[in-house]
Design brief:
With 113 residues, the protein is of the alpha/beta class. The chain has helices at 13-27, 30-36, and strands spanning 2-4, 37-46, 55-66, 69-78, 86-94, 103-112.
């Protein structure tokens, strides 16, 4: 799977983390997710379910953070090129403002374009 991340994520560890969490979500990387999610996180998803088709590319367009909140957005391309692009946005709530704080809640928004 091809991965494209914004070049400015290196300026903030939390911005890089939320971009990495978006990639872990797409790759179903449970080890990375378990490392950063609180013991009983809330994760709500709004929009259509992801297609069963293999994902060929994840593009994170941007990531921002402020205090306990962070967000990133981007899109997914599929191996089956007839499958429309799926755009995503994740909104993260961290348990505190420390660098090692775990994610206690995520809201994921999906749309097909």
């Amino acid at each position: 799977m091809k991965i494209a991340l914004p070049s400015d994520c290196g300026n903030s560890p939390r911005m890089a983390l939320v971009a990495d969490l978006a990639v872990a979500w797409v790759a179903d990387d449970k080890d990375t997710l378990d490392q950063w999610l609180a013991d009983d996180p809330s994760w709500s998803t709004f929009g259509p379910a992801l297609p069963e088709t293999a994902i060929s590319e994840v593009v994170v367009l941007g990531a921002i953070n402020h205090g306990r909140a962070a967000s990133c957005d981007g899109y997914l391309e599929f191996a089956d090129r007839e499958q429309p692009r799926v755009r995503f946005s994740h909104v993260f709530a961290f348990s505190s403002t420390t660098k090692t704080a775990k994610v206690k809640a995520i809201r994921t928004y999906l749309t097909v374009s």
